[in-house]
């Protein structure tokens, strides 16, 4: 499994790169939920890590748009 991105790595990404990473994480989150529902999920901690990573990216996106509009 892929480890979570460091915050410093996320900060240097462009808006498009952040959007791509967010889409990838949402797909992974869907797959993890599906695996959990069918009883096939082995790494249950990954669900929490992916959720937090999505929150990090959304926070960075909001702060970047606020910085541009300010």
Topology summary:
Blueprint: H1 7-11, H2 15-37, H3 45-69
Helix pairs in contact: 2-3
Task: Give a quick rundown of the structure.
With 70 residues, the chain is mainly α. 76% of the residues lie in helices and 0% in strands. The model has no long low-confidence stretch (mean pLDDT 91).
Low-confidence stretches: none
Any idea what the radius of gyration is? 14 Å
What's the story with the biggest beta sheet? none
Please state the overall shape, judged from the principal axes of the Cα atoms. Answer: elongated
Would you tell me the overall average pLDDT? 91
CATH class: Mainly Alpha
The CATH topology is given as Helix Hairpins
Number of strands: 0
Percentage of residues assigned to helices: over 70%
Strand proportion, as a percent range, falls in: under 5%
Keywords: Ribonucleoprotein, Ribosomal protein
Family: Belongs to the universal ribosomal protein uL29 family.
Protein name: Large ribosomal subunit protein uL29
GO molecular function: structural constituent of ribosome
Q: How would you characterize the overall build of this protein?
A:
- It is built from 3 helices and no strands.
- The model has no long low-confidence stretch (mean pLDDT 91).
- Helix 2 packs antiparallel against helix 3 (45-69).
- The chain is an all-alpha fold and 70 residues long.
- Helices cover 76% and strands 0% of the residues.
- The radius of gyration is 14 Å and the shape is elongated.
- It has helices spanning 7-11, 15-37, 45-69.
- It has a single domain (9-69), classed as Helix Hairpins (Orthogonal Bundle), CATH 1.10.287.310.
């Amino acid at each position: 499994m892929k480890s979570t991105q460091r915050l410093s790595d996320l900060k240097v990404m462009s808006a498009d790169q952040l959007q791509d990473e967010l889409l990838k994480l949402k797909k992974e989150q869907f797959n993890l939920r599906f695996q959990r529902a069918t009883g096939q999920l082995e790494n249950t901690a990954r669900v929490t890590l992916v959720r937090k990573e999505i929150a990090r990216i959304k926070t960075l996106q909001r702060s970047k748009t606020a910085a541009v509009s300010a």
